[in-house]
Every structure is written in structure tokens, then in C-alpha cells.
Amino acid sequence: MAGASISIDYSFPDKAIAARLRALVDAGEDLEPAFIDIGEGLLNSTHDRWDQQVDPEGNPWEPLDPKYQARKKKNADKVLVLEGFMRDTLAYNTSSQSMEMGTNLIQGATHQFGDDDRGIPARPYLGVSEDDEQMIIDTLHDHFQEALG
Predict the structure, then answer these.
(1) Half-sphere exposure for 5 (CA within 13 Å, toward CB)
(2) Which residues lie below 8 Å from residue 113, measured CB to CB, with a gap of 6+?
(3) How far apart are CA 7 and CA 13, in angstroms?
(4) Which of 136, 131, 143, 134 minimizes the C-alpha distance to 38?
(5) Residue 54: how many other CB atoms lie within 10 Å
(6) How many CB atoms lie within 10 A of CB 137?
(7) 52-95: per-residue pLDDT in tens?
(8) Structure confidence at residue 132 (pLDDT)
(9) Is 111 exposed, middle or buried (CB count within 10 Å of its CB: 0-12, 13-18, 19+)?
């Protein structure tokens, strides 16, 4: 068989074990409830990091270019904040098998990865911190625990 697959033989003499395995497989086939919780957690932690002006590892973002900062009329003391719109466009999408998070604004990629041609340094705001990793593990654990009853 091409690709990846999983096959489980449910012919266990113990019906309780077979039922629990089926519950785990079923829970793994629809992870959307867990992904919604993970999306909310990541959205909250990303907003918190944005407010703290740090990347997912806790490192401060590159400061503003002094020339740009001098002519910036609003929020001159803040990085990635002019009107505050980009932070508010952060969102996540889920399905039974995936979760994605980001912004639909083109400048989101510029700020995440930088733009050498325009002298804009990377200021990563999307990502998974150590605390986020633990939240994801805990959420998935709870999802599968709930499936087992």
C-alpha cells in the first residue's frame, strides 16, 4: 500500500480492549475538538507574546530602525504596531485532521520572515513556545483520555 496507513485487528477476545482501541481510533480520526482548543491556546499565547514584543522563544524583537521610529506618528515605541490591525487579524482554522494559524495580511509574512531587500528584519510572532508545546500535549492527552471515558 502506498503512503501511510494504520491497520488494527479488533479480534481481541476481550471486547473491552477492542472497544477502547476503537474509541482511540475514532478520537484520532476527528481531532477538530482538540484542534479548536489548541488554536485558542496558540492564539492567546501569540497575542501575549505580541504584547510583550517577543518571539516564541522569548527573545525580544529587533528594535525599530531609528529613522523609521522618528517619523512614526503612532505607537512609535512599539514594534509591529502602527494601528494594531495585524495583531487583530491573527486567526486559526481547523478541520478534523489539521489546524493552521496566521494572518491573511501580506505584511504578516514580511514581518515573520523579514525582507532583506527592504531592510526589514525578521520578527517572528508565529510559532510554538515550550509552554505552547506542553499545552498541545496536555490538550491531546485530555482529548484521548475523554475518548476512553
Answers:
(1) 5
(2) 122, 124
(3) 18
(4) 136
(5) 18
(6) 10
(7) 999 999 999 999 999 999 999 999 899 999 888 899 999 999 99
(8) 96
(9) buried
Length of the chain counted residue by residue: 149
Cell numbers found for residue 134: 506542553
Distance CA 121, CA 137 (A): 32
What are the Cα distances from residue 92, in Å, to 14, 67, 88? Answer: 41, 35, 12
In this predicted structure, what is the pLDDT of residue 8? 55
> pLDDT for 12-49, tens place per residue?
667 777 777 777 777 777 889 999 999 999 999 999 99
- Mind giving me the DSSP string for 44-108? HHHHHHHHHTB-TTSPBPPPPPHHHHHH--S-TT-TT-SSSHHHHH-EEEE-SS-EEEE-S-HHH
**In 3D, which of 42, 67, 59 has the Cα closest to residue 126?**
42
Greatest CA separation found in the chain?
Answer: 75
- Residue for cell digits 482511540? 24
Closest-CA residue to 48 (of 131, 118, 119, 116): 131
